[in-house]
From TrEMBL:
SUPFAM superfamilies: DNase I-like (SSF56219). It holds the Pfam family Exo_endo_phos. Signal peptide: none annotated. This is Endonuclease/exonuclease/phosphatase domain-containing protein. GO terms for molecular function: catalytic activity. Residues 5-217 form the Endonuclease/exonuclease/phosphatase domain.
Length: 376
């Protein structure tokens, strides 16, 4: 199973949701922990439905900042143990037999307040003896090698973090991918640090000895998402997306495509010229033509999206001063492709609803035709 932790830096706009939706589509996590959501309970419930998760735990934002959320799929059982502004702690049953503990953690962004969250971590240590995985944005580094850029990092802050992990007997997990997980995205005063990580105790490591951590790309936020691949002892790990046959349905984004309009016009008009008045037949023929066109079009778009992701990944591996302008341009292009592919299911997510955090009835069931209800 896959577990992902991501500091989203706000989820109240369509671009953020596109990145989140693409993260879900690409890695199919069974557990997704989000920090700094800046979102309402109502909006996060809409996201849960749209992303296909079966459950959620939410810590509401305070004012216009903060906020935590934990989503999970129907493949795992999750029980809440405790939560605060800086953590969500749950018990997890995976593969119907493995019982362990997961804590999504968010360190206070104010350095002079970090000692309070380390006290919290120590208290959490005494609440359960289950095998323990803790991951998220700790807002602190473990050594000077985890920082790139201006000014030395205060040594006392590093030592406090290390002492807290040692007290809890939590060990930093090995990872693949770029070391740094956060960047200030500035050309002047350029700084990068490894603030996001996964840590686990010896019992969890024994339970899942083949598990690993991967630092992913920068997905909209200035923090990389981190992926924990939880591999059971019997090797039952699926790193992919469940696929199934879907009924044909017209995608909202096609309406703006000139090729689509021409295809419908040509085929519908052709039937009229042949005096074919059977509407069902005409709809079926148009649907077949659109399905073939869509398959070809989506394949080309998928390649384009994958290539743009690779370009962003290559550029973000070796970020240098002055390179953020080009990376921002790449991200804008990538987000534009995601929007075109309509991965958001935009029929239920209009900009006004996202900004206000309002779910409308039509977001879920669409508009019924008045004729079917016997109304005029």
């Amino acid at each position: 199973m896959n577990c992902i932790a991501w500091n989203a830096r706000g989820l109240g706009n369509p671009r953020a949701f596109r990145a989140l939706s693409n993260l879900k589509k690409s890695f199919n996590p069974d557990i997704l922990f989000l920090s700094k959501t800046k979102a309402t309970q109502l909006l996060l419930e809409l996201y849960r439905v749209r992303l296909g998760f079966s459950g959620k735990l939410v810590v509401e934002k305070v004012g216009k900042s903060g906020g935590l959320c934990l989503f999970w799929s129907n493949k795992v059982n999750v029980n809440s143990m405790s939560f605060s502004r800086f953590h969500i702690d749950v018990g997890v049953v995976s593969n119907n037999t493995k019982v362990w503990r997961l804590t999504g953690f968010y360190g206070n962004p104010e350095p002079d307040q970090l000692h309070h969250v380390w006290t919290l971590l120590r208290r959490l240590n005494g609440l359960s003896k289950l095998p323990w995985l803790c991951f998220g944005d700790f807002n602190e580094i473990l050594s000077e090698s985890e920082k790139v850029g201006d000014a030395a990092h205060p040594r006392i802050l590093v030592e406090n973090f290390r002492e807290a992990l040692d007290f809890c007997e939590l060990e930093d997990m090995d990872f693949v991918g770029p070391c740094v997980t956060w960047s200030n995205k500035r050309d002047e005063g350029f700084i990068q640090e490894r603030l996001n990580r996964g840590v686990c105790d010896f019992k969890w490591k024994q339970l899942f000895p083949s598990s690993s951590v991967e630092n992913l790309d920068f997905w909209y936020s200035d923090h990389r998402a981190i992926l924990v691949k939880v591999v059971d002892e019997d090797g039952l790990h699926r790193n992919g997306v469940w696929r199934h046959k879907r009924r044909f349905h017209f995608e909202a984004c096609w309406a703006d495509d000139s090729e689509c309009r021409k295809l419908v016009s040509d085929n519908w008009g052709e039937n009229i010229r042949r005096n074919m008045v059977n509407v069902d037949f005409r709809l079926l023929q148009c649907a077949m033509k659109l399905a073939i066109w869509n398959q070809s079009n989506r394949q080309a778009l998928r390649w384009d999206i994958d290539n743009k992701k690779k370009e962003i990944y290559a550029a973000s591996k070796n970020i240098k001063q002055g390179s953020w302008k080009e990376i921002r341009r790449m991200n804008v292009s990538w987000i534009s492709c995601l929007k075109k592919r309509n991965v958001t299911g935009s029929k239920g997510l209009d900009k006004t609803g996202l900004k206000a955090g309002i779910v409308t009835r039509n977001s879920f069931i669409g508009k019924r035709r008045l004729g079917k209800l016997g109304m005029r």
